[in-house]
């Protein structure tokens, strides 16, 4: 039976991702056990794995209770995650569910221990990126520096363009508002904003997004583009051509947008 991925809404704007084949399941970044347990009960699913991308509570708060409820559940997470039975590092290959393997990518910046999980066992391929890459934006730098974060985004951006990007928050509308301030002449971005508005007016999720769309419209993934560097230079009142410096200016701009 094929695996399907569906969102479980949590808190104000979090998505906990459920991966299941109708019998067994894994969840990604379960900050709230209650909503996960409710969905598992409704679907009559057995939880056998938890994927954790980083240590923030809205991504970890439900792990302990879920493991108590499903004692055979395995937690895959960063080396720093004490609840993990399987500590994951760069280029590890882990079989989360039978026949469903993920490659681990270290993507520091939002936190120093942040990891992402990529699989091409599904078609199209999928990426669970936590709070590193968002639809139309990226996470704040709570622990890392611009060089780390920009490098992490480029690492994710090198994956196949058809990859579906499963980020952890519904931030797309606000992110695209900022993106348009940076690159108002980007027609792909203008069209994406219209599509996003239509989805949100119907209270529909704007994620997953497609990685090729992120490369075309997400300013934080376009720090090598002349138009983005020009916007950063105008913001900084100084000529900027280095991608990490460009990213730093954009991130500070977005933090105060």
TrEMBL record:
Q: How is the cofactor bound?
A: Binds 2 Zn(2+) ions per subunit.
Which positions bind Zn(2+) 2? 58-59, 131, 169
Location of the Metallo-beta-lactamase domain? 13-169
One of its Pfam families is Lactamase_B
Report a single Gene Ontology molecular function: hydroxyacylglutathione hydrolase activity
> Per UniProt, which keywords does this protein have?
Hydrolase, Metal-binding, Zinc
**Which SMART domains does this entry report, sorted A to Z?**
Lactamase_B (SM00849)
- EC number from the UniProt entry: 3.1.2.6
The domain of life for this entry's organism is Bacteria
For biological process, the GO terms are:
methylglyoxal catabolic process to D-lactate via S-lactoyl-glutathione
State the function annotated in the UniProt record: Thiolesterase that catalyzes the hydrolysis of S-D-lactoyl-glutathione to form glutathione and D-lactic acid.
Give the protein family.
Belongs to the metallo-beta-lactamase superfamily. Glyoxalase II family.
> What is this protein called in UniProt?
Hydroxyacylglutathione hydrolase
């Amino acid at each position: 039976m094929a695996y399907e991925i569906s969102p479980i809404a949590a808190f104000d704007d979090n998505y906990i991702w459920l991966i299941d084949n109708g019998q067994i399941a894994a969840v990604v970044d379960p900050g709230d056990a209650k909503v996960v347990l409710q969905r598992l009960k409704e679907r009559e699913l057995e939880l056998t794995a938890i994927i954790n991308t980083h240590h923030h509570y809205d991504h970890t708060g439900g792990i302990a209770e879920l493991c108590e409820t499903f004692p055979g559940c395995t937690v895959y997470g960063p080396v720093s995650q004490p609840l993990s039975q399987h500590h994951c590092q760069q280029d590890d290959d882990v079989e989360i569910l039978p026949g469903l393997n993920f490659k681990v990518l270290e993507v520091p910046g939002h936190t120093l221990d942040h990891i992402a999980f990529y699989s091409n066992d599904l078609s199209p391929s999928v990426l669970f990126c936590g709070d590193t890459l968002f639809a139309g934006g990226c996470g704040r730098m709570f622990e890392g520096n611009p060089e780390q974060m920009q490098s992490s985004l480029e690492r994710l951006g090198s994956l196949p363009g058809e990859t579906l990007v499963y980020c952890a928050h519904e931030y797309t509308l606000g992110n695209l508002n900022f993106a348009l301030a940076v690159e108002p002449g980007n027609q792909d971005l203008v069209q994406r904003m219209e599509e996003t508005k239509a989805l949100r007016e119907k209270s529909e999720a704007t994620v997953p997004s497609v990685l090729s769309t992120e490369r075309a419209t997400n300013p934080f993934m376009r720090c090598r583009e002349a138009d983005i560097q020009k916007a950063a230079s105008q913001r900084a009142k100084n000529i900027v051509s280095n991608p990490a410096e460009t990213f730093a200016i954009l991130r500070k701009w977005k933090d105060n947008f």
